[in-house]
Design goal:
Blueprint: H1 11-18, E1 27-28, E2 34-35, E3 42-50, H2 56-62, E4 70-74, E5 82-84, H3 86-94, E6 99-106, H4 109-114, E7 118-124, E8 136-137, E9 141-143, E10 146-148, E11 153-157, E12 160-164
Parallel strand pairs: 3-4, 4-6, 5-6, 6-7
Antiparallel strand pairs: 1-12, 2-7, 3-8, 3-11, 9-10, 11-12
Helix pairs in contact: 2-3
């Protein structure tokens, strides 16, 4: 686990510091995400997956070294299939991912809560995905209408989720 990514931040303080920015570099995700992971506060450089009801690339990502990064999954906001479950959350924790932000659903709520990784998602859905090996990795994605790019920094705590360019 990378120790350079400190959790000594507050999203409210970041918002106060950037509230008058007009260049669009500082972004706040809408307050639609629920906290499911064992780590309530997390931050790190962004890696992305864009997929729809197929978590093949999500699995490949969490099975690789996380190096303190946050995986942002653009699942198109689908509420029909779970893109992350207990096995993938355990793999993310084991491989050093700081967190997962899923614009879609997750499942295995008790296993997610027991994993040492931050997990934010829209809702719970017990149905798993189809495996078609479809999607894209490390491309700019839109999460609830907000652009998130690979290499951005994401900060998540009890108050919300903010994204900005790397410092």
């Amino acid at each position: 686990m990378s120790t350079e990514h400190s959790n000594d931040f507050a999203t409210c303080d970041l918002c106060d510091a950037h509230k008058n920015d007009t260049d669009g570099a500082f972004r706040v995700l809408p307050p639609v995400f629920r906290d499911y992971g064992g780590r309530p506060k997390f931050s790190g450089p962004v890696s992305t997956v864009k997929c729809f009801e197929d978590n093949s690339l999500v699995k490949a990502a969490v099975d690789s070294p996380g190096q303190g990064r946050v995986l942002v999954v653009d699942g198109g906001g689908s509420l029909r299939r779970a893109l992350v479950g207990g096995n993938l959350a355990a793999a993310a924790a084991r491989n050093g991912w700081a967190g997962l932000v899923v614009d879609g659903c997750v499942r295995d709520v008790a296993e997610l809560a027991a994993s040492d990784v931050g997990i934010r998602a829209l809702a719970l859905m017990p149905l798993p995905t189809e495996k078609r090996n479809e999607g894209q990795r490390d491309v700019p994605v839109q999460v609830q209408g907000v652009w998130v790019r690979p290499g951005d920094r994401l900060y998540a705590d009890a108050d919300g989720i903010v994204v900005m360019p790397a410092p």
